[in-house]
Amino acid sequence: MQTPLHHRSWFAVLSTVIAVIAIWYLAALWLNGQQLIKTYERKNQSWQLTDIVQQAYAVKRPMLPPPHQVVQEWVKTVFQTKPSSKRSLVFHTIVTLQSTLLGFALGTVLGILIAVGIVHNRTLESSFMPWVIASQTIPILAIAPIIVVVLGAMSITGIFPKAVIAMYLSFFPVTIGMVKGLRSADRLHMELMQTYFASSSQLFWKVRWYSAQPYLFASLKIAIASALVGAIVAELPTGSQGGLGARLLSGSYYGQTVQIWSALLMASLLGASLVFCVSVLEKLMLRKRGYQA
Amino acid sequence: MKSTLLTALSVLIVLVQVGASLTLSEGFMTAAPAWWLLLIFFVASATRLMNEMTRWLDAQPNANRLFKLVVPGLFAVVLLTIWQTLTRGYSVPSVLLPAPSDIVLALFNNGPVLWADFKQTFLKAVLAGYVIGCVSGFIVAQLAVKSRFLELGLVPLGNFVSAIPIVGIAPIMVMWFGFDWPSKAAVIVVMTFFPMFINTLTGLQSVDALHKDLMHTYAAKSAQKFTTTQLPQALPYIFNALKINATLALIGAIVAEFFGTPIVGMGFRISTEVGRMNMDMVWATIVVAALAGSISYGALALLERRLLFWHASVRNAQP
């Protein structure tokens, strides 16, 4: 039996994307059109619907820039500007990427260490685990300015304070996933190792670490997306000169909506490609372990 | 006998250290480094106490659940005491890191201001955005579970959105909906929609085929099917989303306030007080935010336990 067209996934995804773009254009017409009408009325000029439609997609500081304007700006700032210039989006992306990756690496290491501690020490689990969970109910992003001030007073500046915030957001999924993963070791394997008189480090490296790998990668996908959010948000209150967050902030100060949207587009592309990279690694790892794709 | 004595001694040391950190005058660590000795003993005794408590609790599976809070509580006391001792003992400038006691003072002295911020950020923006976002995610998931087309189109979109930093739309929302709380609520709606949608959809799809067939043989109407099988089966997933969203919502509101607010709100308070170097006030606001976040998370977790007492995940968690 053949699947009907509207139940094929490429068709559904394609129509969703087209629908989103169509709604976007209509909304842009509506929002920018209202703005234009207001200007016309203020100047007491008469206007026609065709004028509005023509101009709504070419406003300099639109309420909602239509997709092609955003893409134009994106292409201009990515490909037609030197990457070393502050006007280049590549420059800002690299700044954000650095603190994201550093924070992600730190968060992963910290998350794994905490998980190992929790799995091996009952007291650590009962005293620390509730706080690991509670730490995520605290809107940590609020602490971002403080971390920057405190580290700045110790003359630590640059990407490190931002990476600390990215780390804070990304360690949690890793800890939770790893605790689950390290505990998921097959009981029979563990007992077999014990009959071999395996030391606890052998037990860890030969059984637990192996069984935790799939869990680790599932968590890493969440962690890297959170690290990016952390890095972007950390750039907001710190008054930093570079980075996608700084780009968003300066865009909102000067009403440069096209700039905001193109920074958002870049952030989405960055986020999606980071997650994609991790999932490629995951696939490779799973294949090595003999899973069928 | 010996171990009881040791435990009593540990309790004593903990109490002395807590008292000392609260009462001694500024800079006592610089004046007399011997206090380090007490601090080290304090950490050792507290560790011992936590070990004992954990062992005792593990031996008594029927102990009251409130007892389980003692160990993490003690852990928090240890951290706070070390913080208090070091900041007071070395008279760390409060611009850098205020002592916990200063934060508590700021909390009490600025009650009305903090309450106004809480009202603006939490009671208006967070609640409105959270309710709208979760309800609409739930409704769209209902539609998607009935239509394969919608499901195929929206799920990849949802996965894509989960990879992108949505808080970035905050400046746009501020531009559209103004400085006041509706713009923050709008950010929260967008942030909470997809987690709710994806989770509810997964939950609704997880319905046991046997249950479905059973209801079919009973000639159940679709509303009956929904309330008796679909909704209960989906509830754990829905609660999962509700809990995730509770924290997301607070983050969204505070971050959105960095982009412009009327002169009230927790995000506004944090960014202005950092500028004025009033760190104790910043910390006090964070304490309020942390309490709001943990209490709403805790309330949801309790509600989940109440409603889902029959579910495997809850039954196994309770000893």
From TrEMBL, chain A:
<dbReference type="InterPro" id="IPR000515">
    <property type="entry name" value="MetI-like"/>
</dbReference>
<keyword id="KW-0472">Membrane</keyword>
<keyword id="KW-0813">Transport</keyword>
<feature type="transmembrane region" description="Helical">
    <location>
        <begin position="215"/>
        <end position="238"/>
    </location>
</feature>
<protein>
    <submittedName>
        <fullName>Binding-protein-dependent transport systems inner membrane component</fullName>
    </submittedName>
</protein>
<feature type="transmembrane region" description="Helical">
    <location>
        <begin position="258"/>
        <end position="281"/>
    </location>
</feature>
<keyword id="KW-0812">Transmembrane</keyword>
<feature type="transmembrane region" description="Helical">
    <location>
        <begin position="89"/>
        <end position="119"/>
    </location>
</feature>
<dbReference type="Pfam" id="PF00528">
    <property type="entry name" value="BPD_transp_1"/>
</dbReference>
<keyword id="KW-1003">Cell membrane</keyword>
<feature type="domain" description="ABC transmembrane type-1">
    <location>
        <begin position="89"/>
        <end position="282"/>
    </location>
</feature>
<comment type="similarity">
    <text>Belongs to the binding-protein-dependent transport system permease family.</text>
</comment>
<feature type="transmembrane region" description="Helical">
    <location>
        <begin position="131"/>
        <end position="153"/>
    </location>
</feature>
<dbReference type="GO" id="GO:0055085">
    <property type="term" value="P:transmembrane transport"/>
</dbReference>
<feature type="transmembrane region" description="Helical">
    <location>
        <begin position="12"/>
        <end position="31"/>
    </location>
</feature>
<dbReference type="InterPro" id="IPR035906">
    <property type="entry name" value="MetI-like_sf"/>
</dbReference>
<keyword id="KW-1133">Transmembrane helix</keyword>
<dbReference type="GO" id="GO:0005886">
    <property type="term" value="C:plasma membrane"/>
</dbReference>
From TrEMBL, chain B:
<feature type="transmembrane region" description="Helical">
    <location>
        <begin position="122"/>
        <end position="145"/>
    </location>
</feature>
<dbReference type="InterPro" id="IPR000515">
    <property type="entry name" value="MetI-like"/>
</dbReference>
<feature type="transmembrane region" description="Helical">
    <location>
        <begin position="282"/>
        <end position="303"/>
    </location>
</feature>
<keyword id="KW-1133">Transmembrane helix</keyword>
<protein>
    <submittedName>
        <fullName>ABC transporter, membrane spanning protein</fullName>
    </submittedName>
</protein>
<feature type="transmembrane region" description="Helical">
    <location>
        <begin position="185"/>
        <end position="204"/>
    </location>
</feature>
<keyword id="KW-0472">Membrane</keyword>
<dbReference type="InterPro" id="IPR035906">
    <property type="entry name" value="MetI-like_sf"/>
</dbReference>
<dbReference type="GO" id="GO:0055085">
    <property type="term" value="P:transmembrane transport"/>
</dbReference>
<keyword id="KW-1003">Cell membrane</keyword>
<feature type="domain" description="ABC transmembrane type-1">
    <location>
        <begin position="135"/>
        <end position="307"/>
    </location>
</feature>
<dbReference type="GO" id="GO:0005886">
    <property type="term" value="C:plasma membrane"/>
</dbReference>
<feature type="transmembrane region" description="Helical">
    <location>
        <begin position="66"/>
        <end position="86"/>
    </location>
</feature>
<keyword id="KW-0813">Transport</keyword>
<feature type="transmembrane region" description="Helical">
    <location>
        <begin position="157"/>
        <end position="179"/>
    </location>
</feature>
<keyword id="KW-0812">Transmembrane</keyword>
<dbReference type="Pfam" id="PF00528">
    <property type="entry name" value="BPD_transp_1"/>
</dbReference>
<feature type="transmembrane region" description="Helical">
    <location>
        <begin position="248"/>
        <end position="270"/>
    </location>
</feature>
